[in-house]
Amino acid sequence: MQVQLPMILSKLRGFPRWRKVKITQTAFAAVLLVALIVMPIYYSWPTPSKAKITAVKLKITIQPISESQISAIVSAVDESGELDTTRDDVVELSFSGTSASELERSRVNLKDGEASVGIKVYLQQSSFLTARWISGPTPLKDATVLVSPLMWNY
To answer: If one looks up domain 57-151 in CATH, what number appears?
Structure first.
């Protein structure tokens, strides 16, 4: 059941002019209505992201455990802060200047974009903890955070 355009046009030749105008207006209105409904839906539909999250920097999150123990979580994140789970880089942690805190280990291997290291606090004094990228697929920007046991209520 295939409709052929020449057959439709031959039937339109017998109509008066006003009827042809009315049919054309109705067809145009139907096309316009469909376009007005379909276009906003098409452009508001979320597109699947084919881009992978690519980490560009390190992030340090500090979690107090007790008065003498703190946990530092180092993450590889992109510009918007999303975790890149494909990264298994090596990162070095160090305190700036003098510190009355001690890291369990100074080098950590990120696994699925994250690593955790314990910090033993001997005196409650503030110091800066820095994470530096050592090796991995691409360099990551350093991260520095203030570690201040004085600010936390245990």
So the answer is: 2.60.40.10
